[in-house]
Amino acid sequence: MSNKSIKKLDAEKLYDNAIVSIQLGIEDFKLSQTSERDGGNPSRALSSVRNLYAGLLLLFKYGIASKVKTEEMAYELIHDHATSALPYPDGKGGVIWKPSGKFKTSTIDVGKIKERFDSFEINADWTAIAKIQECRNHLEHLHPRNTLGELAEFVADLFPVLSDFIINELEKIPQTVLGSAWEIMLQHKNFYTQKLDECEKSWGDAYVPTGMAEFFKECSCPKCGSKLLKAFSENLDAGETVVDDDDKFKYVCVACGDIELIAPLIMAKFEREFFHWPPDGEEPKNECCLQCDRNTFIISEQACRWCEAELEYNECVICEESLTQDDQWNGGLCSYHNYMASKDD
């Protein structure tokens, strides 16, 4: 008879821990968003992220554990298993196969949770969860004061994921499950969505270059990390635009009040996308546009992302060689045939 103890998991305790973690995370969130003068504490931002993310994963694990009838099965489901085994002598001329690496010493990670969800047909918005996970990892490396704006987005993104999971998979009422934390999250989600909509509309007459729109959408406040960036009213009142007045046009951060030029933020995202590393033999992906004098001319596209300038002549009319910006003054000829034509003259 084996003396090996049978490991069990009380799913309801897992559930209670998940709810407490989420509630603590919301308390930390509320404190982090309140000014120190009014009793708030910006340093609670990181503990908010940690508690909320941990609570989400615990709730997911509860969802898995609740699919089986026994505590032994529940334990097996949410703990990681070894992927391979190695042979060891049993002292009697035979072998014993033992798991290599870790064996049920830790609970499953996000990847394993997704696998279990797929197996048990549990639904979740994994695109949103991936964004939440990325945000959490990023916030872990920041000073608490630099996380406040990004934390607001984190909580806003977390709200629908929690709501849908509690309602659709656990078949519970979110207000009852989370108590006052639910109301805080709901109010914040509504506020954040409203402000985000206001910010997006404010740029309607600012005329961000169409080719730079994808990079503009990724911009966030360097001071606090918030995406709630509004077009500066003074620039709009003066009839200035981003496309023509990038040396003047500013944003104002709704979260922290920071006011700076928007173009450097857009260009930073652009340069990251088209970065190349010459020591590895990489060729430049962009160059200075001869029309607007900005480093936004994409070589592969043969067009400028800022001013939308395109080549008038794409290939030599004689040899069909591809032409560059520098060849545009040759009347449709490559440098060689332009040279030959000038000799004939």
Walk me through what this model shows.
With 345 residues, the chain is mainly alpha-helical. It folds into four domains: 11-81 and 107-199; 203-271, no CATH class; 279-310, no CATH class; 312-345, no CATH class. It contains twelve helices and eight strands. It has a three-stranded antiparallel beta sheet. The protein is flat and about 95 Å long. The N and C termini lie far apart (104 Å).
**What is the tally of helical segments?**
12
The biggest beta sheet is recorded as: 3 strands, antiparallel
Structural shape? flat
Strand order of the largest sheet: 3-4-5
- Work out the helicity level: 40-55%
Helix/strand order? HHHEEHHHHHHEHEEHEEEH
* Through-space gap between termini: 104 Å
Mean pLDDT: 87
Overall domain count: 4
Determine the structural class based on helices, strands and strand pairing.
mainly alpha
Outline of this structure?
The chain is mostly helical and 345 residues long. 46% of the residues lie in helices and 8% in strands. The protein is built from 12 helices and 8 strands.
Which secondary structure elements does this structure contain, and how are they paired or packed?
Blueprint: H1 11-33, H2 44-65, H3 71-78, E1 85-89, E2 95-99, H4 110-120, H5 126-139, H6 148-169, H7 174-178, H8 180-202, H9 213-216, E3 229-231, H10 233-237, E4 250-253, E5 259-261, H11 263-273, E6 286-287, E7 297-298, E8 303-304, H12 335-344
Antiparallel strand pairs: 1-2, 3-4, 4-5, 6-7, 7-8
